[in-house]
Amino acid sequence: MSRIVVLDNEAVQALQNPAHPKHRRVVSLAQVVASRKRRAATVEVAVPTAVRVEAGWDRTSPEWVFPNRLRIADVPLDAVRASTAAAIRHRTEVSVADAHLGAVIQSTSAGQQITVVTSDLGDMRLVAGDRDITVVAI
Amino acid sequence: MWYSLVVEPPVVIERISELLDRDGLQTSNTSMRIPTALRDAAALAVRELGVAASATALTTAALRATLEAVVMQAALDAHYEQHPQARPDLGDLAVAAAELDGHPLAVEPERLRRAAVEIVAKHPDASPDDVLLWAEARALSAA
Q1: Residues of A in contact with B74 (CB under 8 A)
Q2: Of A36, A41, B65, B107, whose CA is between 20 and 30 Å from A2?
């Protein structure tokens, strides 16, 4: 069984900034993913590109070198996810970034387990719709 | 192997990462010698269990996952060296492992931290999953 770990804005901010109060907590999650990958578990970390915009994560900036090196995949806001995100935003009034995150959750294949690392548990439950997700509240 | 003679380790890691980012459309034949039994096991797993589209796809996925783990760990190790306070202890990792999986003990981080302290006294190389198992066993015996 494979797992995708999706980061929200605050998780990204915490990962980037060693002075952030939740930095060590998010690094712990990254460390567990790295160890599991080493043991051949199918697990990947991903960030919706709209979340990256909201967090200010510029992959060309030296300020983001640490998150850049952690093999965190971008999930783009393509045409299909844009429509899903628009519907989520219309229904829930969440931010564009959270709507994109919801679209990522809803576009994940049925057999894949989903963990969302977030500071906003309620919004994640809203945008996930009927998908079963594991929420790590930071 | 030739990299180790001419390139600094951080540059090697960057280069590996860049290569992993490239699309996989361009392919190369390779004369890699692998144990025959491993080759046969992979072929059987593909044919009978459908674990991948082909033995080549299975090998490629495993190789990619291993290289991604190497790159991630190198980045984390460099980060810990620069920011020692960011290095998680076994308790932190056990909590993180439980949270990622939605394990029932994720809501009892202090129990997991106590289990980490207990287990590391006897098994210094214990993993976060060992801690989870130990904490689960303790919870069951206490129930």
Answers
A1: 69
A2: B107
